[in-house]
Amino acid sequence: xxxxxxxxxxxxxxxxxxxxxxxxxxxxxxxxxxxxxxxxxxxxxxxxxxxxxxxxxxxxxxxxxxxxxxxxxxxxxxxxxxxxxxxxxxxxxxxxxxxxxxxxxxxxxxxxxxxxxxxxxxxxxxxxxxxxxxxxxxxxxxxxxxxxxxxxxxxxxxxxxxxxxxxxxxxxxxxxxxxxxxxxxxxxxxxxxxxxxxxxxxxxxxxxxxxxxxxxxxxxxxxxxxxxxxxxxxxxxxxxxxxxxxxxxxxxxxxxxxxxxxxxxxxxxxxxxxxxxxxxxxxxxxxxxxxxx
Length: 293
Fold this sequence. Notes:
Radius of gyration: 24 Å
Membrane topology: Multi-pass membrane protein
GO cellular component, one term: plasma membrane
Keywords: Membrane, Transmembrane, Transmembrane helix, Transport
Organism: Thermobrachium celere DSM 8682
Structural class: mainly alpha
CATH superfamily: MetI-like
Order of helices and strands: HHHHHHHHHHHHH
Subcellular location: Cell membrane; Membrane
């Protein structure tokens, strides 16, 4: 009995904190759903209704925001995966992996907050930023205003750049560790049989790290779809990213607009759950076909 008590004692110590955290989380989720159905007694809304769902689904701005959020999330996650995997393979196949100081530099962006990433992108890529000044000094443009707008633009270039700067090192971090642990027997055999480095990567290493890459892609996609900081700081005034639209409704002076924000948050939550389900399904398919390591 004493031995069992020692095993569960650390968890008992954590129990008050866990109850507090889960309590806040559950309260927040319940509150979101209640307010999305129009139940907000603090401002006199005491009747449950589907009115706010109907109005949001009839609002074209909601679908513009949804389309924009899907676009920036997909493009930034895809570019992050491509660059991150290529960088991981570069570390694996060259002398760079022996240079510990150089190898660890890329990890800096992983720990940098997203607000700082947005500030760096603005400082470098805005029309008054570092890059436009260089182009102006070199005579490529006559005025800094002529520099192609890469922040606050409808294509979301600045938002995508910030997410890629944050996401690519994360993919490198999780992919490199997997590649490093894999046996190099297959790679050496393929090279001896005449395969080039690209063929070794694409036909041997890539299938082995595909589950990890898929996980990383879904993590990045889900985060960028639900986060508002970077789109709020670097995104266009229209269309707004979905989380930014929810934030604007939430901060509205008219508190009766709050349910609109909660409806949008419900859709974001449901979409995140769908992505989680797709990841589980994809992982099962990969294992079923023997691609998993």
